[in-house]
């Protein structure tokens, strides 16, 4: 039975520029402040991409470690580092993200067209990420950009076993130009495909751009959880830029409360996802 709602905030991403989106948190200070405020509102997980001194996406190991340490020190949020990075990041650097020791990390289940780019995720790379996470006790969030990627996930689990902690959690990333659309129909198709995955598999969903609200509502009504943030959405409503990540988290919390599925604490989420101690 689904009770509360797991709310993930994805505050930064790798795609928007600070010049175009000044409210984007790009420094460690901005990120920590955002994390604290989003936690106070009801977020339990933070999906993290970091930037360099010029606000460009980076996978710099020192910065990643510093970020994990600062978020741990200042919040009780579950820190989920992105292994997706930016579309230009090499596989070796994406794998090395795990060396920063996060509690969770993202793990995308296949290659997808990504606007005018390609987000490359070869099978061997997926297996390597999954295996390293198993060995290190890092819980994956399997990112699903298209329906067939759930079949890849099933193949991965069949051939290489369950993730650390034994619980499977997926995130439907919907509405990327090149991936599945951010519609109720697509979410229901994904939801139905979960029956081929281990019993108890949980899911969250996020809709890119204007699909954010339809996906949020569809996920709540289908028993799913939510991811929101400026990685995915920089327009709050027609003609209104997002002012902050807190604005998006507050909206998600409002919808979750309306659905009588209030936000879960990070302690509840650690239990739900059976995160390794
Ligand atoms: N920035 C995208 C190319 C992830 O974080 O794992 C990939 C992405 C997925 O954001
Ligand atoms: Zn990401």
Characterize the structure shown.
Keywords: Metal-binding, Transferase, Zinc. One of its GO terms (molecular function) is metal ion binding. Its cofactor is Zn(2+). With 277 residues, the chain is an alpha/beta fold. It has a single domain (7-272), classed as TIM Barrel (Alpha-Beta Barrel). Helix content is 37%, strand content 19%. The strands form 4 sheets. The protein has an 8-stranded parallel β-barrel with strand order 1-2-5-6-9-10-11-12, surrounded by 8 helices. Strands 3-4 form a two-stranded antiparallel ribbon. A two-stranded antiparallel ribbon has the order 7-8. Helix 6 (184-193) links the parallel strand 10 (169-174) and strand 11. The model has no long low-confidence stretch (mean pLDDT 97). Bound molecules: (5S)-5-amino-3-OXO-hexanoic acid (KMH) and zinc ion. Zinc ion binds next to loops.
Key phrases:
transferase, two-stranded antiparallel sheet, binds zinc ion, globular, alpha/beta, zinc, eight-stranded parallel beta barrel, TIM Barrel, 3-keto-5-aminohexanoate cleavage activity, binds (5S)-5-amino-3-OXO-hexanoic acid, 277 residues
Summarize the structure.
The chain has 277 residues and is of the alpha/beta class.
Summarize the SSE layout with pairings.
Layout lengths: L6 E3 L18 H14 L3 E4 L1 E2 L5 E2 L2 H14 L3 E4 L9 H6 L7 E5 L3 E3 L2 E3 L3 H14 L2 E6 L3 H13 L8 E6 L9 H10 L8 E6 L4 H10 L3 E4 L6 E3 L2 E2 L3 H14 L7 H7 L5
Parallel strand pairs: 1-2, 1-12, 2-5, 5-6, 6-9, 9-10, 10-11, 11-12
Antiparallel strand pairs: 3-4, 7-8, 13-14
Bound molecules: (5S)-5-amino-3-OXO-hexanoic acid (KMH) and zinc ion.
